[in-house]
């Protein structure tokens, strides 16, 4: 945060209040450079507008408030999803919403506040997807996915990949939510809604793409190889709480931000043969 993000947020404050030209170009970037990619990756969260209400000297305190608000909003949207999707209320909603808002991924990324917006919008995307499958309504899905792609394209494309995997695996296993529509109809409607979201967010995605072509990614080595990046057996150790230290940050095994209970549930789903195949396969 102190090494990079604070300077960007200070630039955000100065640009919107004093120098709008800084949205496209800034001489403060090395010897001068394009700023559109920086804005689309770091600074598009609507909550950043709170920065404008305070002097730049109070920036650390404002960022703390924004981080806390993002934690709260992620729990709120998770609770909304649980109530709408499963028609449950009271303590289960509070418990699961609090667990979602305070999960390991959120704690690990408390200083990467730009990514936390994904945890806020993800439940809304899945509620919109559920509505698309159950009723054919695409409005909620399009609005939420478009918002995610605009606010942070980096997390947005990861969510898009996850949505694709969800639709493919759960559709193939006939495990999608109950719907009066055929799987082909659902798939085509989902593809259409996803494309609309891509078009609506193209005004920021396309310039960002060209901005990235002139950044350090232009000097990255493009190479495709099929191999294990990490030892699969070592990955299993990451399901144990606390299996992380700072030395692993640059070159350690990838972190898995789910609880150990996932391993237990996976074993149960494999061993208990009375469970339907349509339930075990997506798991």
TrEMBL record:
Q: By its UniProt entry, which Pfam families does this protein fall under? A: YfhO
- Entry's transmembrane regions: 49-69, 90-108, 114-133, 154-173, 193-213, 256-276
* Taxonomy, superkingdom: Bacteria
InterPro entries per UniProt = Uncharacterised_YfhO (IPR018580)
Q: What UniProt keywords apply to this chain's record, in alphabetical order? A: Membrane, Transmembrane, Transmembrane helix
Protein name as it appears in the record: Uncharacterized protein
